[in-house]
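In response to the reviewer comment on reproducibility (Comment 2.3), we provide here a single inverse folding case reported in full, input and output, so that an independent group could reproduce the run without further information from us. The structure tokens appear first.
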């Protein structure tokens, strides 16, 4: 860091300390704070105070353009709370733009505050600091968006993979669509939980709705069946249509000792026999 940069950062740190109230009051009127703190302006001003104080510590550190400095941890803490609340009603780009809007009043005040001899270094340091704030805001916004997408995907997978109780101690998972690694994991987790909750001794994996069975799908089925057996239950795969049976033979797929049945009805009949129940079929 050059002498000028060090002087500029120190000047900005002192500016934020002495003009803390003015900066906070102006920030409280901007979109980011007004949208998050709808309960009242006092809450917005209080949050603005915390952000100004956190940025003051970054400026005192001197590395105003370094997003890795430890002093930014407090900035991230304060900003993350606001970004998380704002992200519920705004896109990450919009939230990032609202964070960037905080720069304007700071730069204007710094420009008025300093004499010509110090203004240049202070403006550069303030610009770098507010640019770092914007980058941190974008980082948090994108991270939150990724978390939201991951949670939504997980929820969709769970909704798309219901576990049904067909009979006392018999549960079934009707699989529809592509069976990939992520979905296999959800199938196993929900199925194993159901086996415990329902005290099930037989689990049916119905693949009638799975359009294609290849070596990857077969591996997923075997992995799930093994997990079921490790829980002390029996597993049967139903929905083995003629086309799927031919594909399995042509690909040389070995399903091992997994029990298979052509239809869900056949699998249920087999399952009832395993639990000692006999039900006649029409």
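Designed residues, in position order:
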């Amino acid at each position: 860091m050059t002498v000028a940069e060090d002087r500029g950062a120190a000047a900005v740190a002192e500016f934020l300390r002495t003009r803390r109230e003015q900066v906070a009051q102006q920030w409280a009127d901007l979109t980011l704070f007004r949208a998050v703190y709808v309960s009242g302006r006092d809450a917005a001003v209080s949050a603005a105070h915390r952000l100004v104080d956190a940025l003051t510590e970054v400026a005192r550190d001197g590395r105003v353009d370094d997003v890795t400095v430890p002093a930014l941890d407090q900035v991230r803490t304060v900003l993350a709370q606001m970004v998380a609340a704002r992200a519920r009603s705004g896109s990450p780009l919009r939230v990032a733009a609202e964070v960037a809007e905080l720069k304007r009043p700071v730069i204007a005040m710094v420009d008025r505050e300093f004499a010509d001899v110090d203004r240049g270094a202070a403006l550069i340091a303030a610009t770098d600091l507010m640019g770092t704030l914007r980058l941190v805001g974008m980082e948090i916004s994108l991270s939150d968006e990724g978390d939201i997408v991951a949670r939504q995907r997980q929820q969709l997978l769970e909704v798309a993979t219901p576990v049904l109780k067909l009979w006392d101690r018999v549960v079934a998972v009707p699989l529809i669509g592509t069976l990939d690694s992520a979905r296999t994991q959800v199938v196993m987790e929900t199925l194993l939980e159901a086996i415990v909750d329902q005290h099930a001794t037989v689990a049916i994996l119905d693949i009638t709705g799975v359009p294609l069975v290849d070596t990857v799908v077969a591996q997923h089925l075997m992995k799930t069946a093994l997990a079921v057996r490790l829980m002390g239950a029996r597993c049967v795969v139903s929905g083995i249509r003629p086309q799927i049976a031919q594909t399995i033979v042509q690909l040389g797929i070995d399903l091992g000792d997994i029990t298979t049945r052509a239809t869900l009805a056949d699998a249920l009949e087999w399952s009832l026999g395993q639990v000692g129940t006999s039900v006649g079929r029409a």
